[in-house]
Amino acid sequence: MRxxxxxxxxxxxxxxxxxxxxESPPISTTANPKFDSENGIKPAPLRAMRYFDGSHPQIQxxxxxxxxxxVPFRRTRFTSLIFSGLVPISHQRLKNPMKQKxxxxxxxxxxxxxxDSEGLLQRIKIGLADRAALLQAFAExxxxxxxxxxxxxxxxxxxxxxxxxxxxxxxxxPIDTSNLTDFQQSVVDQCRRIPFGKTVSYGQLAALAGRPKxxxxxxxxxxxxRFPVVVPCHRVVSATGIGGFxxxxxxxxxxxxxxxxxxxxxxx
Length: 268
Description:
Layout: E1 8-16, H1 33-38, E2 64-72, H2 77-82, E3 100-105, E4 111-117, E5 120-128, H3 131-137, H4 150-163, H5 182-192, E6 200-201, H6 202-208, H7 215-223, E7 236-237, H8 250-267
Parallel strand pairs: 6-7
Antiparallel strand pairs: 1-2, 3-4, 4-5
Helix pairs in contact: 6-7
């Protein structure tokens, strides 16, 4: 049996069964779509199943078992037979989720959750009704809130001061934008520069991003904003009104944020 140059690999596999059927789909072991297609391997559409270095994967419900398996890595049907019944490993290696930490606190706009990985923000969710709702909102990350210290505590205090009406552009807080296109990155960068207490239209933000007449595309970027407050999409409105807002409690949260800033901006 000829082994690939990779030789023996140590794979950390997650076995996940479908809740309804109790069955598990086949695994993709090669990161080779052509091989998978030729051998009839169809990875299940479960984004929770991923390859991590020395950690457990993120699970989105169902049962999971972790195994450390040392297996021959061959580009033949034999590979799929070895792993029959296992769930696919994603082709993308992610950061160790055990390094992720969640900061949770109540605020004038409801509960806020800030997920970071070694100082790089991964996700922010705002406007949540209570702690239970926050835990549910972050359930996919499999990390519970912990007491913030160091930079995490500083960010929490800056959020609290901002929501009390003290201007802070938060521009120095790093966020993970690795999934954005150049256009989306430009929109996010320009949005972060909108001054405290001010608003711009989607069309104006499109022009600032160097892509005039793309107001609708800008609106789409804002609707998918993973870092509300740090990327202040509440300061972006439509040409005829307040526009949309996809955070919890929707436009109520957007109006509260705008009111907090407007009151203190006028005092200043």
